[in-house]
Amino acid sequence: FVQLGEAKRALLVLQKPNVPTELQYKFAPDLIMLDAYETVESWLTTKDLNPRKLIPAMMRYSSEPRAKNETNEVIKYLEYCVHRLLNEDPGVHNLLLSLYAKQEDESMLLRFLQCKFAKGKSNGPEFFYDPKYALRLCLKERRMRACVYIYSTMSMHEEAVALALQVDLELAMAEADRVEDDKDLRKKLWLMVAKHVIEREKGTKRENIRKAVAFLKETDGLLKIEDILPFFPDFALIDDFKAFIHFEAICSSLEDYNEQIEKLKQEMSDATHSADNIRNDISALAQRYVVVRRDEECGVCGKKILNVDEDRRLGRAYAAMGSMAPFYVFPCEHSFHSNCLIAHVMRCTTEAQ
């Protein structure tokens, strides 16, 4: 039947109970090319089919050019596998994603990326496609909104905002506002957006300032006027801002900025002083010594440190220092035989200590 081009009759044979399922996979590439609609309808009604084994046939069909208004039967079948059968095979999800990425309408791709397939499952992933593969594919197909979303899911927020600024300012602002648990990163992202807003304006200087000040209100107080001042030309004057911001507010911001500079100077001075002290301590350390008296006694056994004790057995890790056993001397001038001190420490501490 396949050789005669009679797809429907071949599919009827395959649907008989005594026909092995493996024949479905064997003839799938030929059948889907003969009659995609009937083949997919047959797959939809056949139980226990493994979609992964049908991927070669689906890829062969998808590689053929079709009219824009022609329904992609493979997408229909994959959507059935993913949403109805709850298939979790990454190969199936990646194939469906690749077909969405080639569609002119990006909305289906975005809905697929945002779908929480493992919703309700504990300790399960939210999606089953490969995000790195998805990112490469979307960049290749120029699906920029999808790329922004994938960057965001991979916690690459700076890349997401930078790309979103090339697509849509509102998208970039929404992405910058998505980071809530890291205030420093959130501020950095909003500064990226602010710089873009200020530098892209082609109007008059006063008009640019007006738009920049209006933008500050969008950040809910996260950014202040002093944060965006570096983005303006060096010749911008305080007088240019007076019409849009209260003069007192400008002075207050500049005073705060000056206080921060003075505080930073003080911290630098303190750090320099600390460094000098450390250098002096290191220099003094080289000249440091302790005098051990002839009658100095070990703080553990009470015997004299500088005398030879023939009964004392040195540990294997030590060698005799002339006629004396090894010993420790502390800055407080207390002295101990090495073996005595080690035994004392082992006795008075736990194994972990």
TrEMBL record:
Protein name, entry field: Pep3/Vps18 RING C-terminal domain-containing protein
Biological process terms in GO annotation: endosome organization; intracellular protein transport; organelle fusion; vacuole organization; vesicle docking involved in exocytosis
GO CC aspect terms: endosome; HOPS complex
GO molecular function, one term: protein-macromolecule adaptor activity
Species: Genlisea aurea
Pfam families, per database record: Clathrin (PF00637), VPS18_RING_C (PF26148)
PROSITE patterns: CHCR (PS50236)
This protein's record includes keyword Zinc: yes
Sequence ranges assigned to domain Pep3/Vps18 RING C-terminal in this UniProt record: 327-349
CHCR repeat coordinates: 46-206
Keywords: Coiled coil, Metal-binding, Zinc, Zinc-finger
Chain coiled-coil ranges: 247-281
Keyword Glycoprotein belongs to the record: no
